[in-house]
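Worked Example 4.2. Consider the chain below.
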Amino acid sequence: MSKISNKAVVTITFTLIIIGVLLISSDYLKSKKEKAYEKIRISLMTTDDNTPKNIEEKEESTPEPEPEKQEDEYLGVLEIDKINLSQGFYDKNNPDNNVSKNVTFLEPSNYPDENNGNIILVAHSGTSHIAYFKHLYQLKVGDTARVIYKGKTYIYKIDNIYYEEKDGEVTIYRNMNKNTLTLITCTKNDDTKQTIYIAYLESIN
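Applying the procedure from the previous section yields the following structure tokens:
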């Protein structure tokens, strides 16, 4: 009888251990799923001053002013009060949606009104006339950014800032269960890295 009891105790103990391991594994896998990543290809090849190599700067001449673009030509507008940034961006198939011209709405992006989507905006930093993200380095976790899209204002708060090697690919780490704004640019004073800013949707006005 004693042997049966001991065997039963061992079996119950073993069963409880297995259940505990499964619960812990389940929580771990769930967190991994929520904090999933997306790998995207991106080209931010730059010179020492972060001016794209394929952009020719005219010397000793004044460039002709570009025709003023109306706001309604843009797909949306990115606004960040902390760095006095207000810049429109075009839809994915627009020929002006190019990192050598504007803030770029990257191909894998979702639109602001897509559930749990990710808006990925890319621009150069540095000193050139297309360095729209030149002051992005001033941003900290907790700062906010707005995207104006189809008459609504989407407000995002920065949750994470990290760096990656500038090798033509970027891995985006984000919570796949949240609407996300991802900003990517070259890292200030480091030509070998790029900085990724992850912000989550706080409200819609």
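The CA atoms of residues 119 and 149 lie 11 Å apart. DSSP finds one helix and ten strands in the chain. Compare this with Example 4.1 before moving on.
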